[in-house]
Amino acid sequence: MAMPKLLDRGIAKGFAGREPQAGWVRLNGLSAISDVLPPQAYADFGWAQVYNKAVRKFRRRAAFSAFVSGDQQS
């Protein structure tokens, strides 16, 4: 599942939301710069762990793909 759709599905099922709630933690963004900006979404702890792990995996794949293709991405 694509990363933006994963967040939309979490919001639809009630695991995540745009506004913080008690016991919810912030979600990492898809780009490195989004991690220094205010978070755009929050989720319960268990779902956030899964989502943040998927984001790290997505970033690693994108970086490896850029390395292999010879492109410079920052």
Question: How does this model look, in words?
Answer:
This protein has 74 residues and is mainly alpha-helical. The chain has one domain (3-68). The protein contains two helices and three strands. It has helices spanning 3-13, 45-69; strands at residues 16-17, 24-26, 42-44. It starts with a helix and ends in a 5-residue tail after the last helix.
What gyration radius follows from the Cα positions, in whole Å?
Answer: 13 Å
List unreliable stretches of 5+ residues: none
> Which percent range describes the beta-strand content?
5-15%
User: Overall pLDDT, averaged?
Assistant: 78
Overall SS class? mainly alpha
- N→C terminal distance: 24 Å
Number of helices: 2
What kind of sheet is the major sheet?
Answer: 3 strands, antiparallel
Widest beta sheet: strand line-up: 1-3-2
SSE topology string:
HEEEH
Query: Could you tell me the number of beta strands?
Result: 3
Helical amount among residues, as a percent range? 40-55%
Number of domains: 1
Given the C-alpha coordinates, what overall shape results? elongated
